[in-house]
Task: structure prediction
Amino acid sequence: MSAPYSRRSILRQLSVIAAVGAASPAFARERKQKLLVERVEILVPGLPPAMDGFRIAQLSDLHLEPFTTAEDILLSVQACNALKPDMVALTGDFVTHTARPAPQVAELLAQLKAPYGVYASLGNHDFASGAPEVIRALTERNIPVLRNEIRRIHTDNGTLVLGGFDSMYVNRPDVRKTLQDWKQHQPLVLMMHEPDAADTIAAAGVRALQISGHTHGGQLVFRGKAPMSLRRAKFGKKYLAGHYKVEGLQMYVNRGIGCVGVPLRIGAPPEVTELTLRSPELLRA
Result:
């Protein structure tokens, strides 16, 4: 016998509610929730003292169309720019069901400003919708897409290694191959759309910071109770939102901007994250 309130039946009921109420301005205001800026300080192994305070703004899960508008994304871009970050990391799911909006979302993201660049990795919806189109749109706007590769971000105070993995829906991360040119003593930040990859990355002995999205923070969090595992996204079942430590790996999971399934966010407001990197050496001084 099936459960009387399965995830599918709940989403179906919410879809009906949304369709009926969507014409209401009050409903439209409520469903979007206020965009929050979350500020987090995280120790990054190997970060030199001179780079202490390096700030990364993270955006994730923009999902332009059908429920997320260009205005929603523009507001998140403006919130990012207001932080004046050193770098911006975009952790996937730029589109939802089709790559058609990719040029528009890339045009909006081209307004991001950071002296050490804006970088992206792809999410499961990007691959399902058409990764070549999404990649082309982003790169044409000078936003590099890191696909199982690393880049070195050179600053006046030191070098940060930035890595990007493809979505776990495409393949499991080949940690050794991707990080073959990285040395353990070098500070490393990894963009990986699905947070549950942390178990694989940590098991490889990687000491770094992983930044992810994918979960939408649960998207529908009723009465402050985290959704049960069966209601969470594939590869987003263990780590829902916020800061985690997985063995030697630090991880932050961003709640994202957009919606999937229903045009609702309850108890999981959209998020722009300011990640301030801290040097462990200063703690020992």
User: Anything to note?
Assistant: Confidence is low (pLDDT under 50) at residues 1-7, 13-30. Residues 124-140 form the longest helix (17 residues). DSSP finds eight helices and eleven strands in the chain.
